[in-house]
UniProtKB/TrEMBL annotation:
Family matches, as InterPro entries: Cro/C1-type_HTH, Lambda_DNA-bd_dom_sf
Transmembrane segment boundaries: none
SUPFAM superfamilies: lambda repressor-like DNA-binding domains
Protein name: Helix-turn-helix transcriptional regulator
SMART domains, sorted: HTH_XRE (SM00530)
Domain HTH cro/C1-type: from-to ranges: 19-76
Amino acid sequence: MGATQDSPQAAFARFVRRAIDDAKRDRGWTVSELATHTGVGRSTVFRWLAGDWQDYPELAKVRGFCAALGVPVGAAFRALGLPDAEPGSPARRPVVEPPVDADLRMIMARLADPGVPADEKKLIRDTLRQLAHRQIRRAG
């Protein structure tokens, strides 16, 4: 089943295309490298891009794809037409997001701003990745 203009397949294909284009631009990744980093096989990526699926994509793969690219999984679910629930599960109450520190809001805004150069976005992501993965030293 191919994608029609307003189908979940078409919306998800556009979402995946944007994520791949960003990864190519910001990280220099090829589709093969993207597949390696996200844990989603090349053939699956190409099926997603073509809108060539009848059953919803495996949500674990969608989550891994989003996590590796730093893309909110909620955006992928919305593209799939699943704003608050997974296929086959009852609708959940909306999640109330905790307040976000002003500095984090500023960083997120810079990453989302199309006017910010790709090299600056890469620097921000690399810095955040370093901070996230460094070992916490405890005094004691």
